[in-house]
Amino acid sequence: MNELNMLNSQSEAAANLLWQAAEFNPSIQKVVVGMSGGIDSTAVAYILKQNHYDVIGISMKLWQEKGKDELSSHGGCCDLDALSDARRACIQMQVPFYVMNFKQTFEKEVVDYFVREYQAGRTPNPCIICNQKLKWEGLLQRSKMIGAQAIATGHYARIKQLPNGRLTIQKALYLEKDQSYVLYSLSQENLARTLFPLGNYKKKDVRAMMADAGFTRISRKKDSEDICFVTEGTHADFIAGRSHKKPKTGNFVDKQGHILGTHKGITNYTVGQRRGLSIALGYRAYVLELRPFTNEVVLGTYEESLKSVFRTDLCKFMAVEKLTDPITCNVKIRYNQKPVEAKVIPMNDIQCEIRLSQAVSGIAPGQSAVFYIDDYILGGGIITEILE
């Protein structure tokens, strides 16, 4: 517990460095930048280039729907229009640029996972899996092949070394853009070979910097907020297309099993949802539970949706090697949700029970719960079971 106490008591002013991880490995010279074609990754390449790093831009070709025109685009991070923007930016910076094909891995590890989870009544976060399986495991492997010491991405987060010697992720200096939540599963090896140059920046300052540097088109691009491979319709439409099955209608029920109406298929819903239910019950209804085996969607009141105890599996720890004793920290159960104080109780090396200090709505199996001490990631895991 001493390691965690040191972490909890650590307090330091924000560093003036543009990037954080370099302080742990000053020998880093050649860096692979994961280029999405957006403003953030372009800014990363520009910052590192201006600071005399040997920069190589790599875009990952991830997704193209079968039967779609090879030249079609939708403006996300997976399409060919984004690749073209990344290539143009690298030419402008006089940075070598390569496209690497990860489509097969992306389809297997991210897309198929996404479909399976929704069909099983869970709500996945594909960005977390993509970060772990592709943007780090895949990109780091390729970077080693070309002699690079590190990779850099456009995530708004910071890397810090703790008094216990371990590396962890600290939230971005400006919390409105913080992306630490989706990075909790990175390993110590990942962190030791990663740079996050944007951790101390405001997004508006990044846009201004890139506009001043002559990247006019990219500086005006909107942030990508949707699931990059769902290009048309809803995620439920995408799942139906992938599985070649129309969503099977079933019953809305209350907690006692009384039939309330008919739903459009469980892949259309997530725990905590209240919009788009298309049912009038005389009160504001929330999704309490999805039951794939009986094809039922359980509805109830907001008060009934409030929960405070749940379990996580496949836990990974960053600030410590493993958690051996219960600890009080802050927990985020969704990307945009405010952290809630909680006690994290280890059940074994990879499973924990989480007891929130206050009940919240929307604790959804399949989502990630990320544990923080102050601004630092302790660890996290996949929500599997809601207890009370």
Automatic annotation (TrEMBL):
UniProt GO BP: methylation; tRNA wobble position uridine thiolation
EC class of the enzyme, as a word: transferase
Pfam families in UniProt: tRNA_Me_trans, tRNA_Me_trans_C, tRNA_Me_trans_M
SUPFAM superfamilies: Adenine nucleotide alpha hydrolases-like
A single GO cellular-component term on record: cytoplasm
InterPro entries: MnmA-like, MnmA-like_C, MnmA-like_central, MnmA-like_central_sf, Rossmann-like_a/b/a_fold
Site feature Interaction with tRNA, where: 155, 367
Function description: Catalyzes the 2-thiolation of uridine at the wobble position (U34) of tRNA, leading to the formation of s(2)U34.
NCBIfam families: PRK00143.1 (NF001138), trmU (TIGR00420)
Stated name of the protein: tRNA-specific 2-thiouridylase MnmA
Organism, as annotated: Amygdalobacter nucleatus
